[in-house]
User: What shape does this take?
Amino acid sequence: MEEPLLMEEPMIRERITIFDTTLRDGEQSPGCSMNLEEKVRMAQELEMLGVDIIEAGFPIASDGDFAAVKAVSAQCRKAKIAALCRTAEADIARAAEALQRAIHPRIHTFVATSDIHLEHKLRKSRKEVIDMTREAVKLASNYAEDVEFSAEDATRSDVDYLCEVLAVAVEAGASVLNVPDTVGYTMPSEFSRLVKTVRQRVVGARNVTISVHCHNDLGLAVANSLAAVEAGARQVECTINGIGERAGNASLEEIVMALHVRSDRLPFETGVNTRELYPTSQLLSAIVGFEVQPNKAIVGRNAFAHEAGIHQHGVINNPLCYEIMTPESVGVPANTLVLGKHSGRHALALRYAELGFQLSPADLDTTYKSFTALADRKKKVYDQDLISLLLPAVKSRCQKSEVKAGGNQLATTGVAT
Ligand SMILES: [Zn+2]
Assistant: This one.
């Protein structure tokens, strides 16, 4: 029998914390490295987007990462800033040092809990890992009020042992327990059960948040994250454009829009301003130098394109025929006009405004010159080109005194939470 249609009632929506790790897990992936200035620019954009937490790096990994966490900590006033560290004392101290200027610092410490990692990577016994967890969380709690603990490779860990380790982390002072699907192996129903188990056996009535961090090796990162939310997770770790180790992390824009569009099934809210999703995605593409796949959900070039005649006809009559959300709701400019060498200053300024950049007359002058030079070489100038052109001007306006250009040599410590 069909459910009767009910009058819409005001619903109390629980908040899902959006933990962005574009600058840490995302940046670790091949071809996605960013310099200090680019990380700070990206952090500003993420804060404007409305993410709750920005994981800015892994300070012990390199001087570049340390400097980036330090600069982002000084820059961001609203978002919490997280720094990653293993359980070693020096790792934790380095993370705390990098976070010194953050208004809301979070230390994120992790250790693997699966037998395969214990045996082949850590060469530690289960008992030793429990001791490492306790010591690390205690030490981190001396430096910061907000401590997150991650059980790396949680989805391939023995459930009883995983719960034991997580319980030790809570006793030692962790307020966020992250359950990562480090290798992108789990299935939605299985992951849902795991999150429920952790909730029942470890969290109980305590004021501890369950977080998830899903990788996309089987293309299930977003589905698994949403299943976890339904099972009681209240923090989701994700990245812009889904960048990250191997096949990437759960894509922030997909999670946010799934919660937004299907709020009938998922009664939750986030702090994200969905209209900033597309500009943020475009900025990241411009910084790392590659576009997202054209058919990528939410932010791909074709995500709102209608090619088939019958579809076009339907969309013109009523967009809801083939669109479950409007392009405008995610910040895709409604105007699909492609700019070329004959486009004038006004069209250029308008397109920038649609992309979220209000150019001053002086900025417009400089940018228009580079635009015409580029349009001479390229037949069509796309949004991504425009954002690339704008970067120097934006950078100089946003630049703060403590930000100096610097290199980054990450990826030496083999982290894959
Ligand atoms: Zn990861």
